[in-house]
Amino acid sequence: MNLSDILAQIRAKDPFYSSGRILSSMVTTPNSVAVKAFYMFIDTNAGDYGVFKNLAKMEKYVIRKLSQILGCVSNECRGYIVSGGSEANFLSLWLLRNLALKMKNIRKPEIIVSPTVHYSILKAANALNIRVVYSKLNKHLKMDATSIQNLITKRTIAIVANAGSTELGFVDDLNSISKIAYENEVPIHVDAAYGGFILPFIKTVNFQGFRLESVYTITADPHKTLFTPVPSGGFFVKNRKILKYIRFAPKYLSRKPSETLTGTRSGGAIASVYAILRFVGLREIARMHRKCYKLALDFYGKIKRTGKFKTFGKPETPIVCFKPFDTDSRELIKALRRRGWIIYRCPVVDGLRVVFMPHVTKDVIGEFLDDLLEIV
Amino acid sequence: MNLSDILAQIRAKDPFYSSGRILSSMVTTPNSVAVKAFYMFIDTNAGDYGVFKNLAKMEKYVIRKLSQILGCVSNECRGYIVSGGSEANFLSLWLLRNLALKMKNIRKPEIIVSPTVHYSILKAANALNIRVVYSKLNKHLKMDATSIQNLITKRTIAIVANAGSTELGFVDDLNSISKIAYENEVPIHVDAAYGGFILPFIKTVNFQGFRLESVYTITADPHKTLFTPVPSGGFFVKNRKILKYIRFAPKYLSRKPSETLTGTRSGGAIASVYAILRFVGLREIARMHRKCYKLALDFYGKIKRTGKFKTFGKPETPIVCFKPFDTDSRELIKALRRRGWIIYRCPVVDGLRVVFMPHVTKDVIGEFLDDLLEIV
Fold it and tell me: Among A21, A27, B315, B371, which is 20 to 30 Å from A127 by CA?
């Protein structure tokens, strides 16, 4: 048996997204064009500007294009293709913490987050010595604006809002939050790791992103919804000037300093995003997202009509969370697992959730619905 | 022109390691077996234990084997394949900071580092609110033990030692440092990002690694010296119990919590390390490192004999740092660049350095020496 066969055999011990039965993931089989590009650039290091100058240009191009999708209307937006949403969230909070220390001398920083906050924000806050304050959820399961207003103190360095929360897929009301943030001179970090490259295409909500005055930083991950390989997360800032608060120069390099946590970085990741933009195109990406969203809406309607599940409002991204009236959610997840379905929880409402990535096709979701109704 | 050709054309705008003329890098063309494995697992996510259970087992296997190379003699060593040495250094300091807070109530933490410390440690210290204290260098350009002893305070949470410093390739005297650390009950973090998988094979120094009582954490990067693709860094702890200080559980997953900064992680990286261990083998890795080291020693001897350069002692890893007597180092680097050589500085001695990675062959280094002597 040759090496490829051996490796294929080992790989086959874990499931493939192409089976469709992974309903839990915000990652899917990477696009073949993106994989090709990753492979062609696998020997490059984006952290080494002295050697890979063209790669650095390619990253600039990619970041400019992606920033525009996220609402950037100036030439001042910057960012990096990083290891993932967790690093992007970390970099954003690190930057906003250092900015607040420098500009406002805030020494005991706090952030206001949603109860549906991604846990990477909590990790980052622990590392960065930032206190986490939870806002309430309103009846739409979004951050409650009055609650945010009440929680702002002189120590608040940022409000962290979701644009497509991991649990529910809902988008916090950035317009209202932005007004409060502006009045109180507090920056907003938008965790759009999942929704950043969906919302501008499916237009379920008017996602303003960087167009909002107080939005300083955004996380939006190509390896989730631009279908590039892991690791290709996205870290974006509206104004390049604030990057200096996390800028460090290696003494042994004479070139550009780093503004990421990592040093050596995957050049393949950058090339794969480039390939999506240049050779696949945003029209195709938009088509894929609209298709996923249509399936999600359809599923939402069907689930609701069965009368057997509590639902939580019309999906804003291709995620549907639901809670069985007569069965325990955890037990249901186990029963589904026995039938080969991998599905995770949306704990804030004690439900379960389906993420409609491109591998979750119409046929697959039909089978899933049959199994689901058979069990409950 | 098809996509591969277009991508190849873009890739060709930056240099290739295979040209040999990149003398600055600790990364080289990745091993083809490792690349194959990365590619076969490119659709996997090591952060998602619920889906990729076999991948998690593979990572355990890989970490166990690598820990043994780093001196682990128990079953308690753990770790992760992470985005790189910078993340591994960050995770180590984060862990040791949280440990010191919990066990000793240290609220204003300090670390003692070498003047040749890698800048990722400084980045991490900034993010983690750790004060950095610099030890002196002894005449061998290693951390001075007496100086370390004098700098230890009640706030010292770790001593950070180099095993193969980025600038000089030298290995700090871990035995002496370990004695001081033990007597003062201070943990050691060893930044062996570069040397961790070289020293046990070339045996220029008796690298004890985890065998030393006070060594709690080690950084050692497969993507440097096991020739796997970026991003595959290595984060190792001697005792799995202390991992809890950086453990965070995502609420929506029911599985194992994360002990890394990242959430979604490259499964390809893990598979590539696995492939090196299983299908290339440590004997071949050792052979490659010995070859590189032999070339480095040979170059060191030749440089010394010219009488035109100051040298800084026999290399302990395949890095040679030297300083021209009659030319400015920065000017020399520029002149070499004009002839197509990419070489970086060793600023602590105001010299320049050659890193002997496998792409720096005997022929290449002969040409380099000719050019170098022609210029000075």
Answer: A27
